[in-house]
């Protein structure tokens, strides 16, 4: 009789086809096991199963079968990560009757774990200290899996598979011995190879300087953090089971840090602040100008951005009673200029053609060399840039949004001073940027302001009366609610922010106050006192108060210029892609989160699309940074994707200018918006012949466009 | 007719066997070449040859054939490293009639090189700008070979094959272009791949911060230094052709730096100084004590040693009008304690059993993290340590002395406060250290002093009269020369150094002043006033002057203890090796350079051996550092050798004590010294029964031992 192979893998994907002779196989299997004193174990949910000698530790059986089960302490009953549950019952499919009594009794080690650490839930065992005494079906709960899923709240996205670049390993190291002279490091490396099969491990110098003291303090038991299964980046005496990482998103305006538990993937704390570089210039180009004017500008600005990151991490770690020295990894996304400044690279070349990046690769650096006050061995991963104006932040958006996995043609737009535009699907990806300017952020708008308390963020205009109502940030009520004045007294009504300006211009257009060409119709002065004359143009008074909020002809022009630039960029990519419609639009970033997508489409800021398929992607860049932090494989993934992206430089594309001019009209001079006008009534528009300033003498007619 | 393969390699080691039909082959070859318009080129000294189309550049032909020929500029006529000579004449063996006229005429580029750089020697051409126009035999002179030999003056050693870890590459990079957006780094890497077939090159952050400015300053032509064919460590605009490296030897007493040209292997400058750690303690153990007593001791001592290295490199580079910023690589050897302190590791564990090293591996570090003021991208290579008391300096000695290549059994001894001992041949290598103490350095000797002006370094004693004569450092005369007093007046006669103490004790023994047991014979007071009584022992007065130089009984005891420790270590290794005689002894270090080997053997400091086979290895540790600097492969080599060495810890070997006791006698209580006593008369010895202090009552007899 053939002897069964002990622990042979017969799990999912490797199940022998026994349908032809199930009974004979089962018979042999049973006899085999009786003769060889073996028992059968089936692991769920993986379905992996095998036979093992009676008395085999469950964790060992799981390892042999390749079952995904966690352990930091290497089976010493310290970490509690290898918990399992025995599923009782009869499983005819596996020919197994599983009972809790088929496992060895609860051990002293488990009792100790129960007391000192978190109590084990009912039925839970430490698989490292549980022996197989009979046939069992063992469930590995999600929290015991190494590669568990980090659940994303957003239903649109796949969960993140947890597989961090930095992992902890507990080892008991052979004591130094004169009879066998070798270095303490070599003894540690031997233990890592013996217990964890880790080979060719190197270490930082700072590990060397503390190694001997730590080994002795921990009585030759230590926990090490290993980066990318290759380099020891941290060491602690004894057992340690929490490793922290931080995902950082450096925007032009805001810097945010999300402190994560690398073991669970949970965001433990978040901190954000205004980008300190605002003192060197509100927008990116003025920061580049600062560098041009000040020889020390790069040094100052690099120090400022690094300092702000240090401050955020100090804040976030204080929230969980930890310190920055516990942070072992940082992943960063940023636009190209912030990316360069963070690295200490002058952004000068990015300020003018040919907009050359110093590097477009991802970067794997030490936190120490970047003057970040994390753990001395902490690593920094910076996502790759795509092109001179399309940065690591856009790579983060792609990592989060995954346009490359579906067949539907997806448009990703991240609007800031520049709009970064990505278009594609699982066949092809393209990217470009377009110089929208800061109008969408409320700058260059007469009453514009940042999105802060007191800013008008929503506007509706009655097309009959031309009377508006609006909401301000900091108050839930519409302006026509009775309590509105009382409720807004504290915050005031101070200006209009990005989403408010989109709303008001779109509503003005829908109400016929502005024409398809973007001219405020002075004739309406006759109909409403809200249209007022300024020299040769007209304005619309949205609100009268301590501050009058007025939309001027120039404000409309600024929005036209910004949205035309964005649309022309999108159009260019569609052209290159050879498509005339888009299946799905995702708007990333703060602006994308707050604008009304219907109004955006009414203005022709984004191309026509089924409105149900247009949505906000939230802080997709930051999410991308978190994915790269929690899943090492995603780094290689995004690096490969970025290399494959076709980069389009709008500045050298002949058609850009034409598309830009066509896109000045609302929503567009040439493109139909069939999906939009299925759900939105076409505005009553006044076509005005002659120039805007010449309206007095012009012939007017009203028509539905 | 078969078409000849263009440029097919048919050089040394790959010559087809044509002896059977030489004429037919030659006929075909000639016809082939006529038909295909090809010419033949033979390179000497490699013997590689092949056929190429008329007009092929010589450098290209050499590359195709794998001829070792240098180039930094990649064939642009800038570096002048690819110079060749055409050998004129008829070479029937190759069927070639070689003429200078078979090469294309002297070009404008060569004329420019001639004017701007060094003039080309007569007949020399730049092979990158010389085309093949007919059959030629081309000689590649040694200075045009990449892997040229660095000649070692010492006839005992093989030359060093030049193959540095850091090499320079000149490239012309594609200009940044909006139509093809990519990072400047990526463009540089593409150029390195295109021109130099270098793949997977990474770069330091400091390269990124200056890359864009350097590329533009050099008008897109740059020279980069690449470390281990993997990492860009330096970048300069335009063409640069000198790379410097430094070999550093940190001894307990002295620190020395040898500044080398990585291209030629020449030592350009040398600087040395007292080890600044002497202020923390004269010997290694007192420096360890300093660390024990002072919590900040490690930091202070690390800073001191790094600062002294910085100072030496500044001095050495100033000698050649260069700066430390030109130094791209540093290789360091040191004993374990200095090794640890250099790295910032506490030497505490090395101060007591089990003498655990933090690491015994070689180290590849950045100079910046070690606070060395070299080029910001400079690399540091530290040779591996062998055991707790056998350091990277001994690895350097092995690299220089190569005991592993010959079949003769070689003993390498490096004497300091500890003696490092290596024994072996091409079959097996062993190492240990033995605690000789500082007696050999003149410490713990009543009139001992360091080897400096005024120290007695040579002594002879007339066995009949028992009168000595001696020499002092700083004067060429023996003390019995008439002018001696005048000539030594300036330096004085201040003490006795290591080689002097070996000489005087050996001569006292040979003259019968001390017995085989090391007792100064008080009876000789009757014969000479130089033997004087001190309480219960006697001394020998070597010199009377401002300072009396006297050898006391305790001085002899110190030498006995030191030499017994050394000999016991050697004996232990011989035992382990299973041998009773040694073929060859090499004494490394300053002490080894100065002692009289015959006297050392008379004392039984080293085992019996053919005296012609005992010699000084000079500063072998420093030479080892230089080899590792100039030949990257030697690093892997010494790492492998060190792993294979059997490390013996004398402290745990039972027999050590016995061998030590036996070795207290001169030359040894049990071991015969047959080779020695073939050339040296056995001393007249007085065996004294009873203790040394009991001589008055003891019975004495004289015999030849």
Features:
alpha/beta, Nucleotidyltransferase, domain 5, 705 residues, iron-sulfur cluster binding (chains A, B), 33 strands, six-stranded mixed sheet, 18 helices, disordered C terminus, disordered N terminus, Ubiquitin-like (UB roll), homodimer, Iron-sulfur cluster-binding protein (chains A, B)
Counting DSSP H or I runs of 4 or more residues, the number of helices of chain A is 18
- Weakly predicted, low-confidence segments of chain A: 1-22, 686-705
What is the name of the CATH topology of the largest domain in chain A? Nucleotidyltransferase, domain 5
Task: Specify the structural class of chain A.
Answer: alpha/beta
Largest sheet descriptor of chain A: 6 strands, mixed
C-alpha Rg of chain A (nearest Å) = 31 Å
Number of domains of chain A: 5
Query: What do the pLDDT scores of chain A average to?
Result: 89
Could you explain the architecture of this structure?
2 copies of one chain form a homodimer. The first copy, chain A, is an alpha/beta fold and about 700 residues long. Chain A folds into 5 domains: about 120 residues, Ubiquitin-like (UB roll) (Roll); about 70 residues, Roll (Ubiquitin-like (UB roll)); about 140 residues, Nucleotidyltransferase, domain 5, CATH 3.30.420.480; about 170 residues, Nucleotidyltransferase, domain 5; about 120 residues, no CATH class. In chain A, about 30% of the residues lie in helices and about 25% in strands. The first copy, chain A, has 18 helices and 33 strands. In chain A, the strands form 9 sheets. Chain A has a 6-stranded mixed sheet, with helices on both faces. A 6-stranded mixed sheet of chain A has the order 30-29-20-21-22-31, with helices on both faces. A 5-stranded mixed sheet of chain A has the order 2-1-7-3-6. In chain A, helix 7 packs across helix 8. Chain A is elongated and about 100 Å long. At the A-B interface, helix 4 and helix 5 of A face helix 4 and helix 5 of B.
């Amino acid at each position: 009789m053939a002897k069964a192979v002990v622990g042979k893998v017969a799990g999912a994907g490797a199940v022998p086809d026994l349908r032809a002779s199930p009974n004979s196989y089962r018979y042999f299997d049973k006899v085999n096991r009786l003769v060889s004193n073996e028992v059968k174990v089936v692991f769920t949910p993986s379905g992996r199963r095998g036979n093992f000698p009676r008395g085999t530790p469950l964790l060992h059986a799981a390892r042999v079968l390749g079952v995904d089960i966690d352990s930091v302490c290497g089976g010493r009953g310290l970490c509690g990560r290898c918990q399992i549950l025995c599923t009782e019952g009869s499983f005819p499919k596996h020919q197994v009757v599983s009972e809790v009594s088929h496992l060895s009794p609860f051990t002293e080690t488990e009792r100790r774990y129960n007391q000192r650490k978190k109590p084990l839930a009912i039925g839970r065992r430490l698989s490292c200290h549980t022996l197989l005494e009979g046939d069992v079906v063992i469930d590995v709960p999600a929290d015991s899996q190494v590669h568990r899923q980090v659940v994303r709240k957003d239903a649109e996205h796949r969960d993140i598979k947890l597989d961090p670049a930095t992992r902890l390993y507990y080892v008991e190291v052979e004591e130094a011995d004169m009879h066998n002279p070798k270095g303490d490091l070599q003894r540690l490396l031997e233990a890592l190879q013996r217990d964890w099969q880790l080979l060719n491990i190197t270490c930082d110098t700072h590990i060397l300087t503390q190694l001997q003291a730590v080994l002795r303090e921990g009585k030759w038991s230590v926990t090490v953090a290993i980066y990318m299964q290759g380099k020891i980046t941290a060491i602690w005496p004894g057992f340690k089971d929490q490793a922290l990482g931080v995902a950082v998103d450096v925007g032009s305006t805001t810097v945010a840090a999300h402190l994560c538990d690398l073991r669970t993937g949970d965001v433990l704390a978040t901190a954000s602040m205004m980008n300190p570089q605002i003192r060197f210039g509100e927008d990116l180009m003025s920061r580049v100008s600062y560098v041009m004017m000040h020889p020390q500008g790069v040094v100052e600005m690099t120090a400022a951005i690094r300092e702000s990151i240090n401050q955020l991490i100090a804040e976030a770690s204080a929230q969980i009673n930890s310190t920055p020295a516990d942070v072992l990894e940082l992943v960063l996304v940023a636009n190209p200029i912030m990316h360069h400044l963070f690295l200490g690279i002058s952004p000068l070349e990015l300020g003018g053609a040919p907009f050359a990046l110093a590097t477009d690769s991802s970067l794997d650096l030490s936190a120490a060399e970047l003057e970040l006050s994390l753990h001395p061995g902490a690593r920094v991963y910076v996502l790759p840039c795509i092109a001179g104006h399309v940065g690591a932040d856009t790579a983060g958006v792609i990592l989060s949004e995954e346009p490359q996995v579906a067949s539907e043609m997806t448009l990703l737009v991240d609007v800031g001073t520049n709009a970064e535009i990505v278009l594609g699907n699982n066949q092809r990806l393209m990217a470009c940027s377009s110089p929208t300017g800061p109008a969408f952020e409320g700058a260059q708008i007469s009453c514009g302001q940042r999105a802060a308390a007191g800013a008008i963020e929503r506007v509706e205009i009655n097309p009959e009366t031309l009377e508006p109502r609006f909401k301000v940030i900091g108050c839930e009520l519409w302006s026509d609610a009775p309590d509105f004045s009382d409720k807004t007294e504290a915050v005031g009504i101070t200006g209009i922010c990005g989403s408010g300006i989109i709303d008001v211009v779109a509503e003005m257009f829908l109400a016929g106050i502005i024409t398809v060409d973007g001219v405020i119709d002075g004739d309406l002065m006759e109909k409403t006192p809200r249209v007022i004359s300024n020299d040769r143009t007209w304005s619309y008074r949205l609100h009268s108060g301590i501050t009058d909020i007025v939309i001027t002809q120039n404000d409309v022009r600024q929005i036209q210029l910004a949205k035309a630039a964005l649309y022309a960029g999108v159009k260019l990519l569609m052209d290159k892609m050879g498509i005339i419609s888009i299946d799905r639009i995702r708007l990333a970033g703060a602006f994308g989160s707050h604008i009304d997508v219907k109004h955006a489409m009414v203005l022709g800021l984004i191309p026509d699309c089924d409105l149900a398929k247009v949505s906000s992607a939230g802080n997709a860049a930051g999410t991308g940074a978190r994915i790269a932090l929690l899943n090492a494989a995603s780094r290689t993934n995004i690096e490969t994707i970025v290399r494959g992206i076709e980069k389009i430089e709008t500045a050298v594309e002949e058609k850009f200018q034409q598309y830009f001019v066509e896109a000045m009209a609302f929503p567009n001079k040439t493109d139909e918006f069939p999906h939009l006008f299925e759900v939105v009534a076409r505005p009553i528009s006044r076509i005005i012949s002659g120039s805007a300033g010449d309206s007095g003498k012009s012939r007017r007619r009203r028509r539905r466009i």
